[in-house]
Amino acid sequence: MRNAFCQTLVENAADPSFVFLTGDLGFHALEPLRHEMGDRFINAGIAEQNMVSVAAGLAKEGLRPWVYSIAPFLYARAFEQIRNDVCLHRMPVVLVGNGGGYGYGVMGSTHHAIEDYGALLTLQGMRAYLPAFDADVSDTIRYLMRVDHPAYLRLGLSEQPKWFSPPPFAPWRHLLAGVGPTIAIAGPLAGGILDAVRQSELSADIWLVSELPVTDLPSEFLISLRRSNYLMVIEEHVGSGGFGQMLAHQLLLAGAAPGRFVHRTALGYVSGQYGSQRFHRAECGLDPASIVSELNRAVTA
Amino acid sequence: MPITPELLLKARLRLLQMHYESGVGHIGGNLSCLEILIALYHNVLKPLDRFVLSKGHSAGALYVTLWSLGLLSDDDLKTFHKDGTRLSGHPPVHGIPEISFATGSLGHGLGLSSGLGLAKKLKHEKGRVFCLTSDGEWNEGSNWEALIFTRHHRLNVTLVVDLNGLQGFGKTSDIADLEPLAEKFRAFRVPTIEVDGHDVGAVAMALRQDGDGPTVVVAKTKKGHGVSFMEDSFDWHYLPLSRESYQEAVAELTSLCETHFAKLS
Fold first, then answer.
1. What is the C-alpha R_g of chain B?
2. pTM score
3. Among A51, A201, B156, B249, which residue's beta carbon has the most beta carbons within 10 A?
4. A151 - beta bridge partners?
5. What does the pLDDT read at residue A300?
6. Closest Cα to residue A84, out of A129, A48, A124?
7. Which CATH number belongs to the domain containing residue B145 in this structure?
8. Domain residues for A185?
9. In chain A, which residues touch B (CB < 8 A)?
10. pLDDT in tens, B78-103
């Protein structure tokens, strides 16, 4: 996803209002962008708080700053700068967090981003974008180049099944039609789950969400939910403030709460041991096998 | 516009009145930077320049300075700290075009100023950027990040430090000694000028110096300046003015004024 990210930004590099700031990250990935952007590519050093304040100052003068780092170094380290300097002033600053969820795997917990959009979406005017497939990245970037509000772009790794051709980027996408349980997934882990469900005997109705907070619920999704009366929400993020809580809230407001609600989330560090993104997902029951197993239980219950 | 003693006195009295009527504190840190703001706004700032008040708790002094230029009205000042006001206790996000950013949490202003300065550089636009911090605010690591950044990119940012030596819960030297602060700025290779922060002529002259890259003006000040019982007194960082204190302050300033005019005549 990072290469698709760089490539699309390069295509936008000629825009004189576009400024890219990085917290000294992007080695072996962002060099082409640095080359194309010249003095509008700023390596702000390992100083994320200042980098976000600088971005707010740039935006105040009519520029379009994008701020890039490993996700937690941005949303957690510079949270007050994001809150005060960017969000209170509704500055069109795009925060790019690489390594959404357990993306940095065995690098360790300091590099994981499992409470990123939950924390950021408490802020005024902030919206979060979670591309799931490589093709989403370019669509999202083109969209974010025009927004008039603060935005958070959570980058991960595309897990697009070879057989699958994703529909164009949209806040809600219907990935797989089925007559069994209704599933709503946020972010790239949708790819692996989609693949596993399709290969199983299950028939499930799978939806992907790529923009948060959720507001308008698609009528087809509500129809699916009324039919199945079962909703499983899956996200690589803690439950508190996550997509599942947002969606449950919206469903309650709409009087459309299902009879059964299952929420699979990041659970932190279950065993205290570290490993790959796949390892951590499995510990939280976010891996495709665990999801299929849970769905089978629901269907046979 | 020339800065006369009458203008300064009028501004100081209005600042005291505003804080007395609203019942809010922070008067000490407002009085310590009043001359800096008056000098900046009356004698230095040009239309394309920008200013960020990083020590947001001195919003009162900024409002009074804007009032002294006719940019805020007397009626505006009467709403200070009241329900429905534009004039919140710290600079607001909306409503006052001269205020670029809401501040109040310390350690943000210099980074914001660096962003404004970088935008001017990238857009090849004229204009300078000024930022006023307190001295205690240099406890904040983000300020040092911003100083390194603005110096590295040689941004046209002038930082003014209101060096009054007192912060929220004691003397700066007792809490996390920053001295010699001017030497620290010089060690970061930023040209640094030290001035008497209550001498408007000296402050204006220092602020007018425009070089290649950032400059620091360390303005030596007294918290509560101009009111003898408030000067260098830690109490007046937070305490609101009682009726008696207010009357005493006004009497002292008025008497000084009369003495001043007597000398003139």
1. 18
2. 0.96
3. A51
4. A94, A127
5. 87
6. A124
7. 3.40.50.970
8. 172-300
9. 19, 39-40, 42, 44-45, 47, 49-50, 52-63, 65, 80-81, 84-85, 88-89
10. 999 999 999 999 999 999 999 999 99
